[in-house]
Specification:
22% helix; 3-stranded antiparallel sheet; Protein Transport Mog1p, Chain A; 161 residues; alpha+beta
């Protein structure tokens, strides 16, 4: 009995809740209370206002990032370049080289920190919709983020019409 109490005290506390995020374009189940921050970001030479809705659980971060696309980019090949730039940026943040394969809308991305980097990994999906760039990701160390919780978060993320 004492061992069960000890294990319960050491395990992360996940309190899943479904929320509409990205101005209602995506629904996802977050494991804790969320907060949203925004900042200006330049991707593929394009200035964007990028918002990030995130929840933290004992060192792991579960987040949905999004930016409205400028009218001039909507439906244009340049919009897909933003998705590719975001994908490449994720790899760069982990000191890893992106694969040669082209950006695929909504494909799962898994990145582990390169040699000599702190223990960290990430799983993500990126979508370029007609009016918005959306990124869903879970990141943490191998101790703070289990593959099961990371993929549960990604599976919960559903684009809305």
């Amino acid at each position: 009995m004492a061992a069960c109490v000890l294990l319960a005290a050491c395990s992360p506390r996940y309190d899943w809740r479904e929320l509409d995020v990205a101005d209602g374009r995506l629904r996802a189940a977050f494991p804790a209370k969320v907060q949203t921050d925004s900042r200006d970001l330049v991707l593929a030479g394009q200035a964007l206002r990028f918002s990030l809705t995130s929840a933290r659980v004992e060192g792991a971060v579960f987040a949905v990032g999004y930016a409205h696309l400028p009218e001039a980019l909507r439906g244009q090949p340049a919009a897909r370049a933003l998705g590719e730039a975001l994908r490449r940026g994720l790899y760069a943040n982990f000191g890893a080289d992106p694969p040669d394969a082209a950006f695929v809308d909504g494909a799962e991305i898994e990145i582990h920190a390169g040699a000599g980097q702190p223990d960290a990994w990430l799983v993500a999906r990126i979508w370029v919709t007609p009016g918005m760039l959306i990124e869903v990701m879970a990141t943490g160390s191998s101790r703070s983020l289990s593959p099961e919780h990371a993929r549960e978060f990604l599976r919960s993320a559903q684009l809305r019409p």
